[in-house]
Amino acid sequence: MSRINISKQHPDVYQQTAALSQAAEAAAAAAGVDPKLVELVKLRVSQLNGCAYCCRLHTRDAVELGETVDRLAVLPAWWESQYFSEQEKAALGLAEEVTRLSVPERSEWENGSLTPEQVSAITWLAIVMGAWNRIAIRSGYRVAP
User: Fold this and answer.
1) What pLDDT score was predicted for residue 76?
2) What is the DSSP string of 13-74?
3) Distance between CA atoms of 65 and 96, rounded to whole angstroms?
4) CB-based burial of residue 39 (10 Å sphere; 0-12 exposed, 13-18 middle, 19+ buried)?
5) Does 33-100 carry CATH code 1.10.10.10?
């Protein structure tokens, strides 16, 4: 089965995700996070997740905000360079910690038993659950009996 455009299969879920993204950006702005740092975080997370579309998008957005080519070039090894402030290093380190809950893609599930709509719905559920997982882990939710 080819990839399913889940934003077209369930546009209402996509719109809610977009609203969540806008709320996160508003919270960053309200917290005084520099817009260039917001783009660096988005770009670094996209690099870690291997999303070429988002890497391109957020590189362009960072450049439009005045980010330098040198800093973008060393972003994959930010901890090894002297280009980033302590605040930027902290933000990038946090973003990496939150992001590195990945597993290599597997396709054993592709046995023809799921419709494209089901593939889209399950994909959205996994995306949303991943977000909740990260919220719970990062927030230190207790798992005691």
Assistant:
1) 96
2) HHHHHHHHHHHHHHHHHHTT--HHHHHHHHHHHHHHHT-HHHHHHHHHHHHHTT--HHHHHH
3) 22
4) buried
5) no
Q: Which two tokens stand for residue 27?
A: 């919270």
CA distance 54 to 42: 8
If we measure between CA atoms, which residue out of 87, 93, 84, 78 comes closest to residue 138?
A: 93
Buried b (16+ CB within 10 A) or exposed e, 11-25: eebbeebeeeeeeee
Q: Are 28 and 44 in contact (CB under 8 A)?
A: no
pLDDT of the residue at 128:
46
> Domain extents for the chain?
1-31+112-145, 33-100
- What token pair was written down for 54? 């988002």
pLDDT by 10-residue block (mean), the chain, 145 residues: 73 84 83 88 83 84 97 95 86 76 61 66 55 52 65
